[in-house]
Amino acid sequence: MSLTHTDVTRILELLDRAAELDSLEVKLGDFVVQASKPGAVAPDSAAVFQPAASASPAATLVTPNAAPPAETAVQIPEGMVAIRAPMVGTFYNSPRPGEPLFVEEGGVVEADTTVCLVEVMKMFNSVESATRGIVHKVLVRNGELVQHNQVLMLIAPLPA
């Protein structure tokens, strides 16, 4: 038996709705899903659930003896707007390999413009800019694994 995208989504929704939980760990055979809300302390073995027929927390699929990826703290300069990963996944800076990039450093973006994709289990999720501005810095490389709420790029807002 393996976890499906629907299983993981339901697990994350359960954690998101449970005010009394900050994190959880689900074990299914050799696979482990560890999920925690932003700012939560790393999960311990006290909160273990078996998957049930049941997304915004962070999740990491871990195979045996594998460590979850390390998270890097980013200082957001005053006046900058951070574009963050909506979920754990793979960052892509263009719609398809060989096609033009969504954005480049120094380029202007409008509010609600797609600036990248985050792929999770073959589902591509568009990430949009929340503001009109200049792309100050792209902090991740194409194809890199990103964590929930990780800063992907910084935007210097422009007046409307």
TrEMBL record:
It comes from Paraburkholderia solitsugae. This protein is a component of the acetyl coenzyme A carboxylase complex; first, biotin carboxylase catalyzes the carboxylation of the carrier protein and then the transcarboxylase transfers the carboxyl group to form malonyl-CoA. This is Biotin carboxyl carrier protein of acetyl-CoA carboxylase. Residues 80-156 form the Lipoyl-binding domain. Keywords: Biotin, Fatty acid biosynthesis, Fatty acid metabolism, Ligase, Lipid biosynthesis, Lipid metabolism. The keyword Ligase applies. PROSITE patterns: BIOTIN, BIOTINYL_LIPOYL. Pathway: Lipid metabolism; fatty acid biosynthesis. GO terms for molecular function: acetyl-CoA carboxylase activity. InterPro entries: AcCoA_biotinCC, Biotin_BS, Biotin_Carboxyl_Carrier/Decarb, Biotin_lipoyl, Single_hybrid_motif. PANTHER family: OXALOACETATE DECARBOXYLASE ALPHA CHAIN (PTHR45266). Pfam families: Biotin_lipoyl.
